[in-house]
Design goal:
CATH superfamily of the largest domain: Pseudouridine synthase I, catalytic domain, N-terminal subdomain
CATH class of the largest domain: Alpha Beta
Radius of gyration: 20 Å
Structural class: alpha+beta
Number of helices: 6
Number of domains: 3
Strand content: 25-35%
Helix content: 10-25%
Order of helices and strands: EHHEEEEEEEEHEHEEEEHEEH
Shape: elongated
Number of strands: 16
Distance between the termini: 40 Å
Largest sheet: 8 strands, mixed
Bound molecules: uracil
Length: 241
């Protein structure tokens, strides 16, 4: 039965319907080898050959979850207009089309999730979900007096208060390292928070997403999540961390 193309793509678990519309408008979707870039277009998922970026839509049901240690100097998006290396080039040997869950700056390193489970990805990225991410942050100097307490309580950023967060000192020499745990992921949030109190972030590494951490993953390495880990993330979704 014919259905709207954005619905078919979203149902395949790749991404949300809104993002699927963007993929169509960007000319990245083909039906039987022909680019379809109009939003009202329909296709039959049973009969037509539908591809995104040249890859066939995976069959619903085959879900894949990857934990990647992104190195510095790699873009966390699927493609880059400047032609820089992207995280997609690191997930070798994975047949399914996976997508990054959220962003990690070009200059930052550490853990990222990639998946074709659009529903779980949307949940993890939603502000309301409150899934914590923990960072190790090297600063150019020790922040003065009450400054860290101000960040922990929340500051105005782009006209909206940041949610309360946790900051603890890891080591002071030669430059101080802090552990920062946020429950939201706004644009360049950690860097901008420290800039606000007059300090620059020299290094930024994401070391934990919810309960997921993995010190054995070297830069550029990845592993698939174990079924129990996926289950735990889903329970997080149900509000039972
Ligand atoms: N905060 C930042 O400033 N950058 C990141 O990549 C993640 C959080």
């Amino acid at each position: 039965m014919e259905q709207r193309l954005q619905k078919i793509i979203a149902d395949a678990g790749i991404t949300s319907r809104r993002k699927a519309e963007e993929l169509i408008l960007q000319g990245r979707v083909t039906v039987n080898g022909r680019v379809v870039s109009e939003l009202g277009s329909k296709a039959d998922p049973e009969r037509d050959r539908i591809q995104v970026d040249g890859k066939p839509l995976g069959r619903r049901g085959r879900r894949i979850y990857i934990l990647l240690n992104k190195p510095q100097g790699v873009v966390s998006t699927v493609s880059d207009p400047e032609g820089r290396q992207t995280v997609m080039s690191l997930v070798k040997g994975v047949k399914e089309r996976v997508y990054p869950v959220g962003r990690l700056d070009y200059h930052s390193s550490g853990l990222m999730l990639l998946t074709n489970d659009g529903e779980l990805a949307n949940f993890l990225m939603a502000r309301a979900s409150g899934v914590p991410r923990t960072y190790h942050v090297k600063l150019d100097g020790v922040p003065g007096g009450e400054k860290l307490a101000q960040l922990e309580a929340g500051i105005a950023l782009d006209g909206r208060r940041t949610a309360p967060c946790h900051i603890r000192l890891l080591g002071e020499r030669p430059k101080p390292w802090y552990e920062v745990t946020l429950v939201e992921g706004r644009y360049h949030q950690v860097r901008r928070m420290f800039e606000r109190i007059g300090r620059s972030v020299i290094k930024l590494k994401r070391v934990r997403i919810a309960f997921l951490s993995d010190e054995r993953l070297g830069p550029g390495e990845f592993r698939q999540l174990a079924p129990a880990e996926v289950e735990r993330l889903r329970h997080w979704k149900a509000g039972k961390p």
